[in-house]
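lol ok so funny story. i was supposed to be doing the assay writeup but got distracted and ended up predicting the structure for this chain instead. priorities right. anyway since i did it might as well share w the group, maybe its usefull for someone
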Amino acid sequence: MYRKALESLDHLKGQCTMDKSICRIGVFYDGSYFTYAQHHFYADRKLGWLTFQPFHTMIENFVREKEQGYSNYRVVYAGWYQGLFPSSQASEKQLHNERNRHTDLMHAGIEPKYVPMSQSQREKGVDVALAVDALQTGLEGKTDISVLVTGDGDLVPLARALMKHGIRVAVVYFEYEVGPYKSFANERLLNACNYTLNVNELERERKSQGTFRGLFWQPEKGASREPSLPDQA
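and the output, tada:
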């Protein structure tokens, strides 16, 4: 009996060692923030469609540079958080683009977590939904590092709470300004996280330009993938 107990203990130790060989990454998307970036790169910059699979590969490689001691790095969970209009308040084009987005999310293994739009036609509670999911996933021991794709300073308490429980936090953000559209990351959020990655900065660094270009896919001629902007009905 004692021998069986020792064998079981060795088996559990082996499982722990195996788990530690993989750095488990959770990615949490501020959906509207990412959608604005897709619009910027596709419509303003004419670079192509910002796609999820290479974006996750970029994140895995970034974490590999920052976190040592693992043999592999994998995005094991990803969630998408965004306000959603009812069909009665959405245009035909918006419904079409939302279907394309949902398909893209499914192919990338990203779980959509939509929040109903408020009566004022603004997103309410999206940051709370993201924070609850990220905290729950982290506290359940499913991820080693949480990656926040956002620039929202309201998520500073989330970053601090995750780090308090031993979960490292990275923020991946976009920095650009074209006409009325401006993207950046709140300075307090950048300071609160363990790691930060400015995606636009990759384009300016010679060694990262290939990675940056690889994030985009060129749709076939005549096929429009331009996203509807989040605050437009």
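Strands lie at 22-30, 49-50, 72-84, 111-116, 145-149, 168-173, 176-178, 181-183, 195-198, 216-217. The two ends are 67 Å apart (CA to CA).
back to the writeup now i swear
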